[in-house]
């Protein structure tokens, strides 16, 4: 294989229940797993993704005017208003990017809960555009396929073809 | 850069040290279960009260699963370094003896691998491992109870990071 698909190792699509519905390798670089291992990986990741969302640090909303006496002892009255998140404007998401020595994994979750996992080289840029394009192709060739049963494994030749062609054409 | 919390897990999956830098009513060393009853934990919004104890278990479960996943995909010599969500970044460092160092920071922080390594080499080994009085195993979650380590960690995080 020429290195035209440079940087993109493989793609995994996980349905909203945590089941593996698509797995394809574009370029070797990661170790090959059995289908069973991929199923386990998809299920595990589905759970971990939910946990990473729930361990988001919560920042208690400070009282408007804490009295100096309480703040010096480090004991403040319980805030009635609760907490906020570190980035209040952004919706809380689960794991988005995972970095290791050898690869980088990007997770994109659609509004309906389907997850796209893209494994790339750590140095590959513009992963977000790649994953957006893959989502677009998925919408066009999988979701619009009248024979595709929702939440079931993706077996659409047109999707395979266009995905491969687009990744190969990408420089 | 903001550091939210820091955890150390030993090779038996026991959380031996945890520290939070959130402006919590009680932001002291782990093992203090008082912040579960402090009332600061919100009960509204369908959220249940979760103690820091459970938090550390969730963090361990996450890094353990991700580490195994990374090893499976990238080979035995691959290392899980960090992950990012829309709200925070988690950094991970594992020593050859399977002691795991985990740090949660904000998104703007650079790679903390060196920092975690420094904490291990300069603080953990110096003050905890070389201390003849500190236990090598921590059955039942005795934890690192070492003033020198805690103080220097505090200084390291506040000054160096």
How do the strands and helices of this protein lay out in sequence?
The complex is a heterodimer of chains A (171) and B (161).
Chain A: E1 8-14, E2 20-25, H1 35-54, E3 59-60, H2 68-73, E4 83-84, E5 97-100, E6 104-109, E7 115-120, H3 127-143, H4 157-169
Helix pairs in contact in A: 3-4
Chain B: E1 3-9, E2 15-20, H1 52-74, E3 80-84, E4 89-94, E5 100-105, H2 113-129, H3 147-160
Antiparallel strand pairs in B: 1-2, 1-5, 3-4, 4-5
Helix pairs in contact in B: 2-3
Subcellular location (chain A): Endoplasmic reticulum; Golgi apparatus, cis-Golgi network; Golgi apparatus
Pfam family, one (chain A): Sybindin
Subunit structure (chain A): Part of the multisubunit transport protein particle (TRAPP) complex.
Question: In short, what is this structure?
Answer:
The complex is a heterodimer of chains A (171) and B (161). Chain A has 171 residues and is an alpha+beta fold.
Structure description:
- The complex is a heterodimer of chains A (171) and B (161).
- Chain A has a single domain (8-56, 92-170), classed as Beta-Lactamase.
- Chain A is built from four helices and seven strands.
- Chain A has helices at residues 35-54, 68-73, 127-143, 157-169; strands at residues 8-14, 20-25, 59-60, 83-84, 97-100, 104-109, 115-120.
- In chain A, helix 3 runs antiparallel to helix 4.
- With 161 residues, chain B is α+β, with helices and mostly antiparallel strands.
- Chain B has one domain: Beta-Lactamase.
- Chain B has helices spanning 52-74, 113-129, 147-160, and strands at 3-9, 15-20, 80-84, 89-94, 100-105.
- Chain B is globular, with a radius of gyration of 16 Å.
- The relative contact order of chain B is 0.18.
- The chains are: A alpha+beta (171), B alpha+beta (161).
- The interface between A and B is large, with 45 and 44 residues.
- Strand 5 (97-100) of chain A pairs antiparallel with strand 3 of chain B.
